[in-house]
Amino acid sequence: MNYTDTAGNAGKIINPILSDELNELSGQAFFQQLVSTLIGLGFVVGVIVFVFLLIVGAIRWITSSGDKAATEGARKQITNAFIGLVLLFSVFAIIRLVETIFGINILELTIPTL
What we know:
0% strand, elongated
């Protein structure tokens, strides 16, 4: 079954949700762009979660009113937020190290063709 859109793209299935730029990509190029976008999005979400946990921990600490258990819980939450941020930057550093050592670009994944 052939599909023809108004632009005359016979034989191509066009996804109306995707932009014209993404519809023109091959499956391999689309997957490469998807992986690099998801990795970047993961880093952004990680930083946003860190900021949120840090702010909530600070508010918990401020509102603890000297209660030892509440202060300790807030301190642990802030410490865990910073540990998560260090892990996030460690993953980024490891990715850059692997890219440098092996000469590949993981954040712009290139898959060799068969």
